[in-house]
Amino acid sequence: MVAAQRDIWRPVQLLAAFREVGFTPSLSKVAALWGSQPVTVRLEDLDMICAALDCTVADLMQEEPESHRAVRDEAPRAAASGMPGSEAARPVPRPGGSGRKSLPPN
Known about the structure:
By secondary structure, this protein is mostly helical. It is 50% helix and 0% strand. The chain is built from six helices and no strands.
């Protein structure tokens, strides 16, 4: 949204704005930032993105709705609470084992 407010509509235009502030990511990295929600962004890169777009980090981020947080947070609780289907995550002893463990290599 911040890029659109600055009349930037394509990843190539965004790349040009980045280069003006000395930030030189690859076009594929810019396209990934443009077209999806990246899993990670380095803080140094985030600082350069803000400089190129003349914005703050808060301008680039959106709060995650409460309903999404509840779904995301529920999965670990379900596995820990012993709900059906959580048994697959528990370790199972190997059949036929002698019960003795070997020593680590020297």
